[in-house]
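Dear colleagues,

I hope this message finds you well. In preparation for our joint manuscript, I am sending the SEC22 homolog C, vesicle trafficking protein (Crocodylus porosus) sequence together with its predicted structure, so that both groups work from identical material. I would be grateful if you could confirm receipt.
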Amino acid sequence: MSMIFFACVVRVRDGLPLSASTDFHLSQDFLECRKRLKALSLILTQYPSRGTARGRDLSIHFLSSGEIASMVICSSSYSTIMAFCFLEELQWEFAAAYDTTSIGLASRPYAFLEFDNIIQKVKYHFNYTGCSQMKISLEKIQEELKFRPPVLLKLEDMELMNGLTNGGHTQLYMGSVPTYRMQPVTAIGILSLILNIMCGALNLIRGVHLAEYSFQEDHEGIGNVIAFFLPFLACIFQCYLYLFYSSGRKMMVFVLFFSICLCNMYLYGLRNIWQILFHIGVASLSSYQILTRQLVEKQPDPGV
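The corresponding structure tokens are as follows:
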């Protein structure tokens, strides 16, 4: 049966619910669709004022007007024109019941449970009495949709956009998406950072001094200048990789370590063997610390 199942009013800029609901359905498809509706409500500013997200059995329609937006879940076979007539009427009722000019200034969640009575009444009229109770002209909506058709979305696209995985158990900015943090910094890790900074500073100082000499007298020494500056940058980036997680850190660690080794071997003559071994040893320690500092999954706070 083609019908409306759920409707709500939200604030456009952040998806804050401006209406409560007593609708309750045990259908898994409905529950998943409502999760996607909540995710979509958070990014309404990215879309035009009208939009439709179609699924196999259920669809979401939304209508934005100024600071507020009305959203509805209905069966996919339900008329798009009727769905937007419903949304127009819902916004008209909301504007009549509340001062919408103050919504932009609100910083606390609204608890408009009493507006649910109006939602249920309008929903009943559209589900069971057709157009007889409509305040909105069907022809007017049809003409508007003809010249300004709603943007078409897919529920599956929304799932990817909002990071929903395996049936959609997470949402953008809300839900149960796992958040990650790095393991605590160890004493050896702090030591590796200090040594890395020291090696980077030594490379920078030698590189600057050599650059002043090379640019004035010995233009053939540019290679040596580069061989000092590259390890300096590599040391800084190693510190960054240790402190902050990066998905491609294994490859980056290998490239950085190889660059430091290659540059120090190139500098043999300007540095003795012990200095070279010291720099390579520090790079080895930093690389090991980066690779062994693992992620720790932070369980979502159920009270948020």
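For the figure legend, we might mention the following. The first helix runs from residue 28 to 41. The first strand starts at residue 4 and ends at 11.

With kind regards,
E.M.
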